[in-house]
Amino acid sequence: MQVSSRVKHFYYFHCLLDREQFKQREVLIYFYFEEMPVVEIAQLLNIPESTVKTRLRRGRELLKPKLEHIEWEVLLHE
To answer: What value, to the nearest 5°, has the Cα angle with vertex 34 and ends 32 and 37?
Structure first.
């Protein structure tokens, strides 16, 4: 059975997240893997929505250079 390139990319994405700062990692995981909206993440973590958005932005900035050889825009919905 052949694994799709999207599955491989998500596996790689997840491996990179394990190495990033925890605050960015947890927000990115909730947003991209659990598909939670910003408002729900904010409520879950008891932080302002603006903080969730900032952590998402910083997490994307950390990951972007590492994902340039694959289609990171697809993975990060941009």
So the answer is: 75
